[in-house]
Amino acid sequence: MAEPLPRARAYDGLRAYALIVAMWVRSTMAYRTSFLIMAFGNFAVNVLDFVAIALMFSHIDTLGGFTLAEVAFLYGTSGTAFGLADLALGSMERVGRRIRDGTLDTLLVRPVPILAQVAADRFALRRLGRIVQGALLLGWSLTRLDIDWTPDRVVLVPLMLLSGAVIFGAVFVLGGAFQFWAKDASEVQNSFTYGGTTMLQYPPTVFADELLRGVTFVIPLAFVNWLPALYVLGRPNPLGLPGWIGFTAPLVALGCAAVAGLAWRAGLRTYQSTGS
Amino acid sequence: MRLYAAVALSGFKRYATYRVATVAGVFTNTVFGFIVAYTYAALWDERPHLGGYDLSQALTFVWLGQALLATVALFGGGFQDELQERIRSGDIAVDLYRPVDLQLWWLASDLGRAAFQLVGRGIVPMVCGALAFELTLPGSPLTWLWFLLSVVLAVCVGFAVRYLVALAAFWLLDGTGLSLMSGLLCMFFSGMVLPLNVFPGRLGEIAEALPWAAMLQVPADVFLGRRHGSAVLGALAFQAGWVVVLFAAGRALQSVATRKVVVQGG
Q1: CA distances from residue A116 to A15, A91, A156, B19, B41 in whole angstroms, order as listed
Q2: Helix, strand, coil % (nearest 5) of chain B?
Q3: Where are the domains of chain A?
Q4: Angle at the Cα of A266 (from A186 to A221), degrees rounded to 5?
Q5: Which of A31, A79, B97, B190 would disulfide-bridge B212, Cβ 3.0–4.6 Å?
């Protein structure tokens, strides 16, 4: 069998992903009440999370020099970007379980890219709750913030949401690939996904410089929202980096996606079935 | 009694088997500890002595939360999912045949799990926190003792709440929604997302009287020495009171639920 062209393969993968997702959505809708409760729960988890921040602001006017509206902007952009990635690729954290119980073999024999199958596995539409919460908060912050809306700032907001989603998506895929080596360690991934989004909700000024350098140059989570947001909000970079660096977020996102793709391939190549 | 000790021991051993998962959990707790500690540092920098804590006490609260998160099962899980699944599948009928008490059986296994997670997931994050930040550690061995006792009571309260949630599976086909809500309330009202003494006005007073306060806020205050002398006994009595109330509620719900199983004919 000849190897299909990469472009055709990508198209096949996306099509298969869409089909599997549609199947899971139909199955979810069979228990509509359960779905609504779970979606609401997903929404409420994040609302309470922000309520905690709002309670902090009942005692203070600024946190690390940022107002509540500015923190809401950070929270909204980080939450929406993370929510999009979580919706599309959140199922990646189940790879370890499939490797342990040997059901990954079933996926391997199907003529569909494994990544598409794993990413769409048990697709959870309830994760829309998080996106809705993030988007609402982002909308609210935009009504409260006094921003000089130059065209480049207007463009940067959707651009950062998309690049942010791709960066978080790459982290999910990397985490999935890592599980080929450490099967029980799916929780490590939470440090970078949930931990990452929690960190990005707060102003970069509250964190130590070493941490900021780490998330700028090593694991580039700062490109999800911090660096573009600093430009939109017209604030200086705590590390002294120039403002235009926020515009490189799409490039960084592409780089992350490429690295994650290579890691996934390497991981898949090392896979040996449980053999039972 | 020996039976329940054996059940507790097997609960301990069971969680001790997942070594890689434990290390992964410790790593995650530590990362979150750092993130939250920096945000609290910024908050207490703006408002020193907020809620009666100084900066060092606030940071200690953060690391205590991370150390106890798994032990007290603040986000649910553990036996709760298992019991729910047994109820859903009907396996619970087998459990009810056994000549043991259902509630005590699961309590014993949960205490075993908690004991392992206190050691396996509590110590390392706490040490990391103490190395990176200036924490307030109890000076007297007696405070450590009170703290340990308070943690045991916190685990019991956490167990009792999750037992009630799990039993709801007798009535609900799918208990995941309720479990999620329960975990949510627990994270918020235990002080995990923000210490309860920082909650404003009436909300704070109400939150400190609810059972969830017994799961993190009270043990943390005992650890921080905010309750000393007879106030420690008051704090422990508050926890013990909720243990009694919630255990009684669990028993009542259990007897109603098991009658329902008999009515269904198994």
Answers
A1: 9, 11, 29, 30, 42
A2: 80, 0, 20
A3: 15-270
A4: 55
A5: B190
Report the first-to-last Cα separation within chain A, whole angstroms: 29
* In contact, B217 and B190? CB cutoff 8 Å: yes
Q: Which residue has the tokens 């130590």?
A: A208
Q: Global pTM?
A: 0.91
List the structure tokens of B166: 């799990």
Rounded to an integer, what distance in angstroms lies between the CA atom of residue A269 and that of residue B8? 42
**pLDDT above 70 (res A10):** yes
Residues 6+ apart with CB under 8 A from A255: A220
* pLDDT at residue A1 in the model: 47
Interchain proximity A188–B199, CB inside 8 Å: no
- Chain A residue numbers with beta carbons less than 8 Å from the beta carbon of B23 are 185
List pLDDT tens digits, range A17-42: 999 999 999 998 988 887 888 888 88
Residue of A48, A190, A207 lying closest to B38 (CB–CB):
A207
Q: Give A41 to chain B, closest Cα distance, Å.
A: 6
Residue B113 tokens, joined: 């799990």
Structure confidence at residue B95 (pLDDT): 87
Task: Share the mean pLDDT of chain A.
Answer: 91
Q: DSSP characters for B84-149?
A: HHHHHHTTHHHHHHSSS-HHHHHHHHHHHHHHHHIIIIIHHHHHHHHHHS-----SSHHHHHHHHH
Which letter does DSSP use for residue A241 in this model? -
Q: How far is B141 from chain A (nearest CA, A)?
A: 34
ipTM score of complex: 0.90
Dist. CA A149–CA A146, nearest whole Å: 9
